Amino acid sequence: MRFNLPVLISLGASLLVSTAVQAKGHPEAEKQVLDLSKQTIALRSVRGPGNMTPQVAEVLKAALLKAGWDAKDIEIVPLDDTAYLIATWKGSDPALGPVVLSAHMDVVEAKPADWERDPFTPIVENGYLFGRGSSDTKFEAALALSSVIELRRQGFKPKRSIVIAYSGDEETTMDTSKVIAQRLKNADIVLNVDGSSGTLAETGKPLYWSWQGGEKTYVDYKVDVTNPGGHSSAPRPENAIVQLSEAMAKIGAYQFKPEVNDITREYWTQAARIEPDAKLAAAMKAFVANPQDDAALAVLRANPATVGKVSTTCVPTMIAGGHAQNALPQSATANINCRIFPGHTRAEIMAELEKVAAMPPAKFSDVTGDDSVEAPASPMRADFVAAARKAVTAAWGPVPIIPTQASGASDSMWYRALGVPSYGASASMSKDSDDFSHGLNERIALLNIAPGVTYYLSLLKDLTAK
């Protein structure tokens, strides 16, 4: 999943930076990145009949074995119709928590008839690798794994163990994600490489790189209103559809208390410096100074790119009711989808919605299931921030680096829920116009390979050396 800043940066701005640094190449690793990407994209790792996620894991295992890993240090664990991979490179000090590289091997469904190219036939064309999973996230998984192999090839000796932990159902139930997080709850830090973390201008120049330090909690609430019903020729004050509609109108208009945490405060501060829209930049600055600033909130909440970063959001997304055209409705049901700001429980937000609706006949229930979990934001760890800045600069040059909090969901939430710091921190950069994750004709620019290896070598050396 890609989490980019909702800002546009003028090419003429003073912060426009040079193209990626021409670092020393790593030809073996760079070739392996493309080879592994092609092999894994060709495997249809989609949940359901014919799921080939276990075969993806076998391809990656074979690469590690060839590079010198002991078979006993590589696990492929089946779970339902999928599997997960855990491969360990043991550090010199087993008492230290490991550094975990997290990614997922599964992809969302892709119908070949809808694509210009077969989604499960990797194709290199005009500097891009096309295929389902190229940007989300088989390419990045191959890039990170190949970089670890290169690190070992160079003779590096990590003090902390490096664990490659790739899940098999991140795009669906996340059952393997939960299991992996439980198994690695002793980790010192998790580097989630799921999707692009940087943005390129349409010219191909790097604009900025962002790391993801928190996620809002995904929740669905069901609201039911029931009545005895009756003949439509004899209307009654208690009408399930009307009552539900009144409750939804109140919830739709409701705005939760604006909030900031360490991650979002730094985001607003940094984003304001490079935002070309003066009005929006001023609102960002004012919001940091005073999160209750009504004028700033009006601007940020009116912008689709920033509204989700201000507070918890809840919106009615589905509604159904009635059983006949000539009968009073006996029931009406709605779904409310919420993205909860870190630090609040699902029960707390549901209680707030019940209070807002002020409709006693409306019965609220949490129908999210086990596919989401409440998780605090990761701390602004100085060692990670410094190592990431050094790695990005080595790979791409001195681009602006900005922390973000996502409104979506990733494997990171399962680690964070256990108190393990997890950061979305992939090496790759992408143009906004090339973002086809989960969509048709998914692609990734191959210009990411060389700087990506440089990035991972630097980041892993710094985080595992002490």
UniProtKB/TrEMBL annotation:
Short name of one Pfam family: Peptidase_M20
Assigned protein family: Belongs to the peptidase M20A family.
Protein name: Peptidase M20 dimerisation domain-containing protein
Entry's Gene Ontology molecular function annotations: metal ion binding; peptidase activity
Signal peptide extent: 1-23
Annotated GO biological process: proteolysis
Keywords noted in UniProt: Hydrolase, Metal-binding, Protease, Signal, Zinc
Source organism: Novosphingobium barchaimii LL02
The keyword Hydrolase appears for this protein: yes
Annotated Peptidase M20 dimerisation domain residues: 214-357
InterPro entries: Bact_exopeptidase_dim_dom, Pept_M20A, Peptidase_M20, Peptidase_M20_dimer
